[in-house]
Protein 1
Amino acid sequence: MSSLPTTPARPLPQNLIWFISVAVVLHLGAILILVLGSPSGLWWLPSMGPSPAEGPQFAKDINAKTSTYYLEPLHLSNNYHFLSNRMQISVPYFEAELRDKEGETIKTIKFPDENANFWVKHRQSLLAQGLAMDFPVQPRPGENIPPPGQRNPTITIWDLPKGEPGEMTFVLSTIPEHLIPRDRPVSRPSEWSLLLARSYMRYLCRRYGAASVKLVRHSRNPIFPAVMFYRELPPNMFDETVCDFGEYRREK
């Protein structure tokens, strides 16, 4: 029985090998940057309670570009930090004040709606949880001096209005990073929360024909089991936190 002659396999072109190797390295590098730039935790801090640890800034900046143009089309941009994994989040709700052109309140709607069916109420609950995605803000150690001709970087935080000692409604305030208060815990809304607030206020204006909408979020911190070991309860433990996302005016 005669055997067929075998021909040696042709090696891949050197240029193709280099191209595939570079593509694999860039792909794995984009995934590594996504992992490196994702927050970790929650970690317990004595002064701030449970807090996530943010990734390095350079990784978050690179990830913002690679996720948009490369990982999102491949459905690989999720870091698997879902809301259901954040057990410290309470059950928030929010109110939308519909106003006319004169600024008078036409109607106030509460979400989630108690009279809505299960599916609508569930989606409204997810929206309320998305609006409650706040992150603690830690002041930078020392003083940050910007280069000549440049301003200090700013950050948007939840701040109490000045001149109103009895007012406990937090409002959005954009301040320089070196002016972050150091005498109390400070938090900021996530970019996703701000996007949800603006989008839903715009939708409510169009849905009800209002001239403007003001969105106010109500939340309360959960009670952790460690409270059973406290001799004295921390102050304001059962107080409700009210945060004002501001007013959105419909464009003419």
Protein 2
Amino acid sequence: MGKVIAIDGPSGAGKGTIAKLLAEKLGFSYLDTGALYRAVALGLREKGINPEASDEKLKGALSIMDVKFKDGKIFLNNKDVSVEIRTTEMGHYSSVFSARKVVRDFLLDIQRNAAHNSDLVAEGRDTTTVVFPDAWKKFYLDASVEERARRRYLQMKEKGTGITESEAMKDAVERDARDSGRDLAPLMKADDAVLIDSSNLTIDEVLENIMKAVRVCP
């Protein structure tokens, strides 16, 4: 298995942007675990399956589902769904479905297999605690809920998606509660993860802080 740099943190903390830049800078592969959950949520919703469905129904749907993250794109049953999964609705359903053990079990090996043949930067909400507990280096990237909501609002506005600032705040608060409060693999900082608060930092400053920590790693 290659070296793994795992980055956890809440929605809107900047994990995706930083992970991509870090992977490019180090020559590592990049894994967006959140995109995998969004793709699963899309696949389940396309089949009309609700989060309250039985484990057996979920297992049946997942058994014929193929999800891949390749070259920065997410594929669902060989179809590029990179754009489709980036909606507020899929963000909601990915958070809800991710609380189901059968869904997390389905994606666990897919995520771990990504590190078998290459060095990897993986980002998500349980990469440091569950997926890669023995990662070479761990980081927990955070920011105030106000700042994360502001970033989300600007991101969606740039994409032409109708969302207000108050809706972005509501979504951030609700997702934090779901991700941190779930019984299964809750969002939390690993004891050995380096905490970085990006609230008042530029992207370059966050990246430099991480690079400094990586450079001193044995």
Protein 3
Amino acid sequence: MLKYAFRDFFRRRRLARYTAVHGDRYAYHGCEVIVPERAGLGVRNSLLRERYEDDESAMIIRHLPAGIPVIELGGSLGVVSALVRSRIGPSARHVIVEANPDLVDICAANASRGASAGATGVVNAAIFYDAPFARFRLSPDIHSSALDHGRGRGRVVEVPSVTLASLYEQLGSPGTFSLVSDIEGAEYAVFEREAETLAHVTTAIIEVHPEAFERNGGSLAAFKARCLDLGLHLEETRADVLVFKR
């Protein structure tokens, strides 16, 4: 549509001016991150306008405790991961899952900024419970990529399956950890199947996807009830980002 063509024209012009001076470097809540042109126009524009993942970032800044290890599901470009690192400090362990193989390199680079050697690990895999490998659809919009259910645009790749329990082992099986998650609806299965590992979570910051829940026979109400059953109480909600604490 014409209005989108005009919008994108001005976005490109604004970004061209910015990158001519700063290259691929962007500021994100006090963190410097690298976001290349291949990330797409929308992502870079939202970073430039300080709107990138603003609900999730606000909850991380407000609620993520310092010094506690983190498992992050859905690392994407590692921008939010860099913010996580800035909150937990340089030495706390931080294990990140990102299913899109095209993003793993940039995710790792951003996530490890300010981290002590060996404190950050990025796993190219998907949370999945039904087979050793998961089919993952890479959407043209990198933030809409998800497990393949036979619909949507983009190429499909196979990536190794992982569970929260296996990630907890990679984290070093600490007594407690924080969970940060944005995995396009797959969080529902995690909370249904991983009670034993979730018992170690003291803070969970989850971007929920109610439409995906409903497509698979669940609901947001059922998800919240499950969290309560697991001893996680809803602390704060901002748009689709929910914060639970034990």
Protein 4
Amino acid sequence: MSDKDSNHNADNKVALITGGVRRIGAEIATTLHEAGFNLALHYRNSRAEAQALQAELNSKRADSVILIQADLHITKGLNSVIKSTTERFGRLDVVINNASSFYPTPVGEATEDNWDDLIGSNLKAPFFLAQAAAPALKKSNGCIVNIVDIHSERPLKEHPIYCMAKAGLAMMTKSLAKELGPEVRVNGVSPGAILWPENEMDELTQQRIVSRNFLKRQGQPSDIAQTVLFLTTQSPYITGQIIPVDGGRSLNS
């Protein structure tokens, strides 16, 4: 089998997805599973949703999905997340750092707990998980995909800590591409308006956000999932890059 064929054929390859049972994470999981990946899906609290997604995917291909419950803030537990994956499947090919916290922290109201939570989930955990996964990924010539955010470059008002964390994740993507190459590729995807925050956002605000992109419509979780699939299966010569998936929003000043 040629290198090109190997990169396109995901059968028996294994992907670990953090926050992989809800929203964009679940869409990524479904897309990679359809492409032939076996999956280790991490979740923190969403047990019922995790079990439902696992059952759905395993009904399509038996014993292809395992669940891993973990609090990614507990750094010493991240090695166990990797170990659970490799013990079950015997390999690890892809890590998707998708788990994230998002909420406003206006200056004057932000707390140290907010800092620890937002930096922890969006930057610290992805770094230490990547470090824990690196030996297994080097063996498989695997890759890491980080879910960044267009606000890693253009700050979102009242969200300074979140934006700083995602900016750090963007730099981590580029730094790890240098650190882990040539065996491991590291790339990122920066979503724009894909899913609205779970806390209430009024329709006028939504319309204003959509009006700033050049396609004049909201994106879909599948737009992110298909980009992740491209980076994991069809881009053997791409590393250290972050792809905006935002309808052109990031082109605006």
